[in-house]
Each structure stands twice: as structure tokens, then as C-alpha cells.
Design brief:
Layout lengths: L20 E5 L4 E2 L2 E2 L1 H12 L5 E4 L11 H15 L5 E5 L4 H9 L8 E5 L8 H12 L6 E5 L1 H4 L5 H7 L5 E6 L4 H10 L3 E4 L5 H6 L4 E3 L7 H12 L3 H18 L6 H9 L16 H15 L10 H7 L23
Parallel strand pairs: 1-4, 1-10, 4-5, 5-6, 6-7, 7-8, 8-9, 9-10
Antiparallel strand pairs: 2-3
GO biological process, one term: lysine biosynthetic process via diaminopimelate
Subunit structure: Homotetramer; dimer of dimers.
Pfam family, one: DHDPS
Length: 343
């Protein structure tokens, strides 16, 4: 399970990706208190084959705060093993102390990642200058691309658009997951930075895409991910009426998935689908009985919708079904449109 930590692992600088489309922050399946790695690998492969554009391991939805450092690495290795070198994976990183976050980032130097998703320092509520210096220290410690994660409801501090624009001058910073709940800030990020802007508030997904947003890192997309990929493609094709109708169908489930603390409702939905156990680590608790009843009714309607497939994703779907690939065989091509080559 630690194959990506060996000396034969590929240099991280060769993994490149644009952060566009639908990315899913995976839940972390548990079984009797421990990580269920078999369920995690099965879930990762199913998601990778669904038409989405990338995965996030150890994000908020993955209960990263309740995992040990060793579990972070083992879970990431497990996901990478499942989806192989052909599918982009981002690793979530968080913390309050810059030195500790830098140390965590350095642990993944040799992992073949699309990038790191790094939140602003939580709890301590630093100044914007402190946020800049925090992220600059992280960038100096890694060759990986960095996705800024703005989630003030959890961290207690907002990454202002001007701060994001300043950081974006460094080519390490390629995207931002914007979960501040304000369309005005999202608009400023689109207008004033070179970053790919990903919606982090699922209820604002259609509005974000319609404004020119580049995609989403969506916890709700873990349930029927194909429909979120379809929504993205409909907007990109200018089929806004169809996109609006689809989003109207998705919205009741989205609201229920965030009616109680994430990821309890998402795990409840996945448990109803037989994908994971409905098991969380304290202080997170399972979804209430009333919530589950409402979710089950809404989910039944959503699951009745036809499965969507995109022809340009077929090769990737087939690749996910290949046998597991050893680290020595990882040879992805360098993209010509890599952010590192932007001016």
C-alpha cells in the first residue's frame, strides 16, 4: 500500500493538471473504527469511471481532521493504487501552524498527485499578510501545484480576492476552491486572478458555472456523480435551459446533504446505495432518523434518472478497470497547457 513512497516514485513535477470540471472530495469509509481500505478503493474506482474530472483524498468530506498522519498517507496510497496514474488525485492538507503544515506537505513530495488542496490556517484567524506568508512557506516546500481552499465557515478567516490574486503570481498556485458562499467574491476571483475557480458551495454550483466558473469540488457529487458531470458539460455547451432543469432536479438532494453536518448525510446516502457503512468518527455523528427518511425519498427520485455518459470519457473509464499499475510504470505525459508555463 506504500508503493508510491519508494525511491522509484516519479518526481512530482511531472504530474500536471488544470483544475476544471467536477472534482469529488471522497468520504473515508470506516469499518469498526478503522479505515475500510477495500471500500475506499472501490468507491474511488467507481467515481473515477463516472465522468468526473478528479478526486480529493483527505478533504473535509473525508473527515481528515479525525485521521492520524499515518492514516492520511495510507488512505492516499490506497486511492492512488485504485485509480492508477491516469486519473488526477488531489491531497487535502490543513492546519493552524505553518511549520506543521509545511512538514505535512513535504511527506507527499514523491506521490504522483495532481496537486494539494490547502485551506487557510484555521482557528488562529491570521491577517491577510499572515495568510500570504503561510502559503508562500508551503509553496517553497513543494513542487506540487497548490489549490487554495477558502472555507471561512470552518477556518474563521476569509482569503480575500486580493490575497488570492497576489498568491497567483506564483505558478505553484493554480486554482481556488471558493466556499465562502458569496457570488460577489467568486466573480472577483474570476475577473481579477489567473486561477481556476472551483465552486465549493454545492447549492451555488449552477450560478457559479453560469458566471464562468471552471468547475467544482463537490461533496454532493459523490451521489450520482454522472449527473454533475452532465451539468458541467451542459453549461459548457451553452445549453442553459437543460442545465437549469437538471440542477432543479439535483437541488432537493443537495439541500438535504447539507441539512446536517457534512459528511454525515453523504455517508447516509452512500450507505443506502450499499457503497459504505454509515460510520463516522466522533465528534461527527450519523444523520438523524428524520433526515434519513427525507433523504431516502429524495434519493429514490434521483436514482431513477438515466445514467449519463460522455463519449470523451470512455477511454478513461476503461483505464480505471485495468489491473493495478506499479509505481515503476507511471509515465504520464506532460500537458502543453500546464499552469507552470503560463506567464
Amino acid at each position: 500500500m506504500n508503493q508510491y513512497s519508494c525511491g522509484q516514485a516519479m518526481s512530482s513535477s511531472r504530474i500536471t493538471a488544470h483544475f476544471q470540471g467536477i472534482w469529488v472530495p471522497m468520504v473515508t469509509p470506516f469499518r469498526d473504527g478503522d479505515i475500510d481500505f477495500d471500500a475506499a478503493q472501490q468507491l474511488a474506482c467507481e467515481l473515477a469511471a463516472s465522468g468526473i474530472d478528479g478526486l480529493v483524498a483527505c478533504g473535509t468530506t473525508g473527515e481528515a481532521a479525525m485521521l492520524s498522519a499515518a492514516e492520511h498517507t495510507m488512505l492516499l496510497d490506497s486511492v492512488l493504487e485504485a485509480v492508477g496514474p491516469r486519473f488526477p488525485v488531489v491531497m487535502g492538507i490543513g492546519g493552524s501552524d505553518t511549520r506543521s503544515v509545511v512538514a505535512a506537505v513535504q511527506r507527499y513530495h514523491d506521490h504522483p498527485l495532481a496537486g494539494l488542496l490547502v485551506s487557510a490556517p484555521s482557528y488562529v484567524r491570521p491577517s491577510q499578510d499572515g495568510i500570504v506568508r503561510h502559503f508562500q512557506a508551503i509553496a517553497a516546500a513543494t513542487d506540487h501545484s497548490i489549490v487554495l481552499y477558502n472555507v471561512p465557515a470552518r477556518t474563521g478567516v476569509n482569503i480575500e480576492p486580493q490575497t488570492a490574486a497576489l498568491l497567483a503570481r506564483d505558478s505553484h498556485f493554480v486554482a481556488i476552491k471558493e466556499a465562502g458562499g458569496k457570488l460577489q467574491q467568486l466573480s472577483e476571483l474570476l475577473l481579477d486572478t489567473r486561477l481556476d475557480v472551483l465552486c465549493g458551495d454545492d447549492a451555488l454550483l449552477l450560478a457559479s458555472l453560469s458566471m464562468g466558473g471552471h468547475g467544482a469540488m463537490s461533496a454532493a457529487a459523490q451521489v450520482r456523480p454522472d449527473l454533475y458531470a452532465q451539468l458541467y458539460h451542459l453549461v459548457r455547451q451553452g445549453r442553459h435551459g437543460a442545465a437549469g432543469a437538471l440542477f432543479k432536479t439535483l437541488l432537493p438532494v443537495i439541500r438535504l446533504l447539507f441539512s446536517e453536518p457534512n459528511p454525515a448525510p453523504v455517508k447516509a446516502a452512500l450507505a443506502m446505495q450499499g457503497k459504505v457503512r454509515e460510520e463516522l468518527r466522533l465528534p461527527m455523528t450519523p444523520m438523524s432518523a428524520a433526515g434519513q427518511t427525507a433523504l431516502a425519498d429524495a434519493l429514490e427520485q434521483l436514482m431513477a434518472l438515466p445514467v449519463w455518459t460522455a463519449s470523451d470519457k470512455e477511454e478513461l473509464r476503461e483505464g480505471c478497470l485495468l489491473q493495478l499499475v506499479s509505481a515503476a510504470n507511471i509515465m504520464p505525459a506532460v500537458r502543453q497547457d500546464d499552469h507552470r508555463h503560463h506567464g
